[in-house]
Design brief:
This protein is mainly β and 167 residues long. Helices cover 7% and strands 55% of the residues.
Length: 167
Amino acid sequence: MGATSYVVGEGSEISFVAKITGSSFRGKSKSLEGKVELNETGDTLVGAFIKVKASGFKTGMSQRDNHMRRKYIEASRFPWVSFKVEEPTGVLYDGTPMDLVGTISFHGVEKKSTAKVRVINRSEEGLVIKADFELNILDYGIKQPKFTVVKMAPLLKFEVTLALRKQ
């Protein structure tokens, strides 16, 4: 018996929190695609490739969204942000966080990154995984966003929910 494959399904979402001068805002996207493979016993992640449309994030302000897509993340040049895991991990215990090391590809730059992941729900049809990680946009060649007197901190905090269904 081999690995069990799962695809990203409905209910998956990625969001980030960005701090700006005197406040913060959240960006969200449901434009996720990808595949996750677990070993034959279903307890070890052996590979994953998840991507999100760079233009899919919405912050609740269309002007900010357009500015972010055009000027900073350049979504037309770099249409996808991805996370890839190529090495087996430790055991994925339900509810217990573990560190997952992979490569983030963003704005034409690839960097190793670590996410805290945990299985929230497991059934015959699939599983739900939650993950969180931080990303410094300066590491990916993106200049610090600013508009008049408002600056955005370069460190973003991400949360991901992957609703995976068995293939």
